[in-house]
Each structure stands twice: as structure tokens, then as C-alpha cells.
Design a protein that fits this description.
404 residues; alpha/beta; VC0802-like; 9-stranded mixed beta sheet; 8-stranded mixed beta sheet; 12 helices; elongated; binds S-adenosylmethionine
């Protein structure tokens, strides 16, 4: 077994669920030893490759391997010092490199940080290495990562040593980052496609997380009943699934086909796709021959709101959307087998009176779906997960559901 430390993205709850669902799908035995808003410590079988995992998971920033575990009695770090001295941290790096030390403990331990800083400084000096420390920037009382993910992905292992420290159950754990996600790869899938519609798209990052939340093993068929220009289906294909989409708007449906053909060619994928230019409120009629194993979708979320609406207007929008979603859930109930997952986003609108108006759970419950939480024990009542980003003013509620 090996212990790995996962640095979580902006939405730690979603990242944790994505991680658990993906590992469960691949039938990888794992144990969550600890997790916080910033990082998760997991025990996993030896064969698991961090570089492959980090490529698959869009909610994980980087993965570090625990190299040292030492008892910490108060601020006596002698055991840690002894264990550290037996490890060649600069292996694979040249004579000149950058390094960072991140602290993922729940409570900051100044003494431990100072000890580690002194220890590595002295050591690299003795080894005649030109190691330059990058220290995390302080941003309004909060610490920012010491190196931008883009840069880390480029430099890791060649000119950058990224270390992390975590205090866990009376021990100090020291980890070395072995894989980092590359935000440029995601950006390419967002903006280098033949057709890009910023006002419409689900980001590649969110799309990948949603697909992973479905927890499907490779080679299954995923349906997006509101597929737009295909962001979710693209991620489904990239993770080894067959893609089926429904899009009512003809122009979007054809853009979706263009984008998915591009994706298939560019990434040399074996997975295929089929797009129906139809209304998903009637999907059981035209999807008869398709054996759909999971549904992943960011549906139509209502009109673009320039300013906060009144409560009356918000209730009107939500009522209309609820009617649409309920019809689609009724249709999905007809084509999905028991145990099939549906990952579905629904809006929650903030009103000018300071209220929040959202879709009621009856919309899916009446049609035989219930919330599914891959981490019921560790994070009870985690579903729905709220998702808000800079670009989008609407709060989106992420539901993972299962057909009863
Ligand atoms: C939020 S967008 C989906 C974005 C998509 N995930 C992407 O990244 O391109 C919702 C899409 O649903 C489509 N739509 C709305 N009502 C529909 C319906 N009843 N049946 C099928 N598609 C519908 C809209 O035309 C729009 O393209």
C-alpha cells in the first residue's frame, strides 16, 4: 500500500466526491485517512499511478507521495530530522532548481515550518546545490499556493521540487509531489474547439468532474439530454465512454457534432458519439435502441439575468424549469435501469429581496430518483453540492442521483 496526499481544487466537496467515485468505478480499494478543505490523505494499492489519476481528475490540483512519517513530540523533530537525512530529495533534478514547502495541516505549526526551512536550506547548501526557495504569498491573511499550477506542471521533476507537510494523528508526514494537473490542457479543450460559445459552455473542468461523479467503468454509454456544443460528451469520450447527446437547437447540435469529431481525431479516441437534434422531453421515443448507462447534464438553466430578479420573477423561472426537468426525469425513468446514475445541475436563484429560490427535490423524487452520496460516511448530506464560479452568477446545485 502507498499513502498519497491529494491537493483539492476550489470546491473541495466536489473534488472529494469525484475522487471517491472514480476510485470506486475502477474498483480500486482505498481508504480515506484524513481530509480537510485543502487536501486529502488516502491509502491506495501500490500499482496506482499518480500521473494517470491526476490526468483523470479535474478537481485535484496535484498528488504527492508520503516519503516520511515521524513521531512529533511537542516540537522535538529529531526523529523527523533523522528520517529526512536518509532520503535524496534532489534525485532527478539538476544542480539548480526551485523548491516549495506547503503546509496542509489543519493548524499551522510555525516551529515545524521553521525547522523544515532550516533543515532543507542547510542540506542543499552542504550538497552544493543551487536550490531556490519559493515561499507562499500572503493574500489578505490567506496563503496562496507558492507556485501557479501552470508553472508547476511545466517544471515538476525537472526544475522544481514541491514538498508538502501534514500533521496527522500525532505524526508529521512529509510528501513529495509526483504529479500535477496541467490547466493548459483543460483550456485547450475549452477554447481550441472548432465551435466555442462562452455563454453556453460548461467548462471542461466542471464537465470532467461531472462525468467522473457518474462513477462508470470505461466503455459505457453516457447520455447528455441537453448537450449544447458537447463539453460534457467530450469529457465522456476522453474517459473512454460512448457519448449520446440530445440538443433541441439545430445550430448547436451541428456544432456539437463538429466539436466531437475534432476531439475524436485530435486525441485519437476509439469512443464514438451520436447526436439527436430533438426535444429531450420526448427522449424515450427516439432513444429506443440505445442502452444508456448513465446521464450527465448541465441542462438549460433559464434566461440570462443581468441583475438580481424579484422573488416573483425568480419563482416564475424556477416553476418553468421545474416543469421541463420533471418531464425529462419522467422520460429518463423509462429508459434507465435500476441503479443507474444521473448527474444533473439545477439552478438556485438569488433574489433582490435576499432570498434563494431553487428547484424542489420532488421534481426527481416523484420520478423514482434519489440522492446518491459516494462518501455517505465521511461527508453525510453532501448532495447537492453548491457550485459557483467567477464567470457565472447563478449558483448551480450539483445532484448525483440514482434510479431506484
Ligand atoms: C446550458 S446549455 C448546455 C451546455 C453544454 N453542457 C455545453 O457545454 O455545451 C443547455 C442546452 O440545452 C438545450 N435545450 C434546451 N431545451 C432543450 C430541450 N427541451 N431538449 C433538448 N435540448 C434543449 C439548449 O439549446 C442549450 O444548448
Amino acid at each position: 500500500m502507498q499513502k498519497l496526499l491529494f491537493t483539492l481544487g476550489r470546491n473541495p466537496k466536489l473534488s472529494m466526491l469525484e475522487l471517491a467515485s472514480s476510485l470506486q468505478a475502477e474498483k480500486t480499494g482505498f481508504q480515506i485517512l484524513d481530509f480537510s478543505e485543502k487536501a486529502a490523505l488516502l491509502e491506495l494499492p501500490e500499482g496506482i499511478k499518480a500521473s494517470e489519476l491526476v490526468k483523470k481528475l479535474a478537481g485535484t490540483v496535484k498528488i504527492a507521495q508520503i516519503l516520511v512519517e515521524a513521531e512529533s513530540k511537542g516540537n522535538d523533530f529529531s526523529e523527523l530530522e533523522k528520517k529526512l537525512s536518509g532520503i535524496d530529495f534532489a534525485q532527478d533534478l539538476g544542480k539548480k532548481f526551485y523548491y516549495t514547502i506547503n503546509d496542509y495541516s489543519r493548524e499551522k505549526n510555525e516551529e515545524l515550518e521553521q525547522f523544515l526551512l532550516g533543515c532543507f536550506k542547510q542540506r542543499f547548501k552542504e550538497e552544493r546545490l543551487k536550490a531556490m526557495l519559493k515561499w507562499p504569498k500572503q493574500v489578505q491573511g490567506e496563503r496562496k499556493e507558492s507556485i501557479a499550477p501552470k508553472l508547476l506542471a511545466k517544471r515538476l521533476g525537472k526544475e522544481h521540487l514541491d514538498l508538502s507537510v501534514l500533521e496527522h494523528e500525532g505524526k508529521v508526514l512529509l510528501a513529495k509531489t509526483v504529479a500535477a494537473s496541467n490547466p493548459l490542457e483543460l483550456a485547450e479543450r475549452d477554447y481550441k474547439r472548432p465551435v466555442v460559445k462562452p455563454e453556453l459552455i460548461t467548462s471542461a473542468r466542471l464537465a470532467r468532474i461531472l462525468v467522473n461523479l457518474a462513477g462508470l467503468e470505461r466503455g459505457k454509454k453516457i447520455l447528455d439530454p441537453f448537450c449544447g456544443i458537447g463539453s460534457i460528451l467530450q469529457e465522456a469520450m476522453l474517459t473512454g465512454h460512448e457519448a449520446v447527446g440530445i440538443e433541441a437547437n439545430r445550430e448547436n447540435a451541428s456544432a456539437c457534432e463538429k466539436n466531437l469529431s475534432w476531439c475524436r481525431k485530435k486525441f485519437n479516441l476509439a469512443s464514438g458519439f451520436k447526436i439527436y437534434n430533438q426535444d429531450s422531453r420526448r427522449l424515450s421515443g427516439f432513444l429506443k435502441g440505445e442502452k444508456i448507462e448513465a446521464v450527465v447534464s448541465e441542462p438549460y438553466l433559464g434566461p440570462f439575468l443581468r441583475k438580481l430578479p424579484s422573488e416573483k420573477r425568480a419563482r416564475g423561472i424556477i416553476a418553468e424549469l421545474s416543469e421541463l426537468y420533471e418531464k425529462v426525469f419522467a422520460e429518463l425513468g423509462k429508459i434507465l435501469g435500476k441503479g443507474s446514475k444521473v448527474v444533473f445541475l439545477m439552478p438556485q436563484i438569488q433574489t433582490m429581496e435576499g432570498k434563494k429560490v431553487g428547484v424542489r427535490e420532488e421534481v426527481f423524487k416523484k420520478q423514482g430518483f434519489k440522492a446518491y452520496n459516494a462518501l455517505e460516511k465521511q461527508m453525510p448530506n453532501a448532495i447537492p453540492v453548491s457550485y459557483k464560479d467567477k464567470e457565472n452568477r447563478i449558483e448551480r446545485m450539483v445532484y448525483v442521483l440514482v434510479r431506484e
